[in-house]
Amino acid sequence: MPYVQVTWVAGRTPEQKRKLAERITLALIEDGRAKRENIQVTFVDLPPTDYAEAGVTVADQKRTP
Amino acid sequence: MPYVQVTWVAGRTPEQKRKLAERITLALIEDGRAKRENIQVTFVDLPPTDYAEAGVTVADQKRTP
Amino acid sequence: MPYVQVTWVAGRTPEQKRKLAERITLALIEDGRAKRENIQVTFVDLPPTDYAEAGVTVADQKRTP
Amino acid sequence: MPYVQVTWVAGRTPEQKRKLAERITLALIEDGRAKRENIQVTFVDLPPTDYAEAGVTVADQKRTP
Amino acid sequence: MPYVQVTWVAGRTPEQKRKLAERITLALIEDGRAKRENIQVTFVDLPPTDYAEAGVTVADQKRTP
Amino acid sequence: MPYVQVTWVAGRTPEQKRKLAERITLALIEDGRAKRENIQVTFVDLPPTDYAEAGVTVADQKRTP
Q1: Residue in D with minimal Cα distance to A23
Q2: Strand, coil or helix: what is C11?
Q3: Does C5 touch chain F (CB under 8 A)?
């Protein structure tokens, strides 16, 4: 505890995820009274057809996710 | 806000998801007092081996998902 | 299947949720090839301190959620 | 109801998921007063780069997931 | 890993949740190659107005959740 | 996009959540190529009876969550 899930459109590298997992973990330790060994951080990559903002999928937004 | 996640077995087309994202967004605006620009709708496609109903996976139900 | 989860700041009435559940269910039947009896729709109400947009919680946005 | 989601690193076979779905369903019936026909169990498989424990992704933990 | 989330209508006792958490954990160890110390199981209790099956909220189904 | 959900046992103050929401948002901008205006961060507070680690609920772990 805690469990963190980041849901977004695919496109980040393993290195970016590695850095983000560590930064989010550190934030939870320092500002959330969490213990490192219990923290789990996950990334759920979705295709751009499967994430819509304001009713429009990222695929249709004609921009890089 | 709000954030909507639809979890199901894969098999819908991008066009079906596009229509659903818009319909769900519209419903949240009209009946949920949400503002369009803040609404996010996502679809999580799972393989038929990974979704079970009543203890039986969709793959084992011998029917189209 | 499908399972739908709507996460937002509390403030909608049971009547609003009732209407939304039916509208989302109907959309999934008509545009998502889902069968009514398998559709589940949930609402997760969060306090305004627990939902942040653009880094600012709804409680701090000084506006109705 | 209930809806159960198991999130983990990919690597289990369809047969393992089949057994787990049935065991979890049975547990919910026997100890959770749930009715079989309403129970949904899903598995969300993530790549080892996308699941971090204690700030370290499973891919970096140098062990099988 | 894995992380398990059970979403349902409130009404189970802490004792029922205690038993379910252990049973689900054991199933994941025995049939899912998971290590006990990494398994997290959570229960998300919703009011009966906030969970709909087949378009009808549990509150409206006129039956015990 | 992205949508972030932090699930844990209740006990953090609104000020702690405010700081965490900003830190996570900033991490996603700097290391995840996300745009501030699209980022949503939520916190789901659970009672200690509803979060189990290694098969034991936090309530039963006889320690502060």
Answers
A1: D55
A2: coil
A3: no
This complex has an ipTM of 0.95
The amino acid that residue B6 corresponds to is V
C52–E contact, CB cutoff 8 A = no
Domains of chain D, CATH where assigned: 3-61 (3.30.429.10)
Residue of B nearest to D41 (CA): B52
With tokens 């370290």, the residue in question is D56
Residue type, D55: G
Q: Is the peptide bond before B65 cis (omega within 30 degrees of 0)?
A: no
Q: Which two tokens stand for residue E2?
A: 């894995």
Q: C20 CA to chain D: closest CA distance, Å?
A: 18
Q: Do residues D15 and D22 touch, judged by C-beta distance below 8 A?
A: no
CA-nearest residue to B7 within chain A is A50
Say which amino acid occupies B45: D
Torsion of CA E40, F1, B43, C36, to 10 degrees: 90
Contact D53, D61 (CB under 8 A): yes
Convert the pLDDT of each residue in D24-43 to its tens digit.
Answer: 999 999 999 999 999 999 99
Q: pLDDT tens digit string along B16-65?
A: 999 999 999 999 999 999 999 999 999 999 999 999 999 999 999 975 44
Tokens of C3: 């399972």
Amino acid letter for position D5: Q
Q: Residue F7: in which H helix or E strand, if any?
A: strand F3-9
Catalytic sites of F, residue numbers: 2
Residue A61: in which H helix or E strand, if any? none
- Please give the model's pTM, rounded to 2 decimal places: 0.95
Report DSSP letters for E11-64, one per residue: ---HHHHHHHHHHHHHHHHHHH---GGG-EEEEEEE-GGGEEETTEEGGGGTS-
D7: left (phi over 0), alpha (psi -120 to 50) or beta: beta
Q: In sequence order, what are the beta bridge partners of B41?
A: A52, B4
Chains contacting E (3 or more CB pairs within 8 Å): A, C, D, F
Give F42 to chain B, closest Cα distance, Å: 10
Residues F5 and F17: beta-carbon distance below 8 Å: no
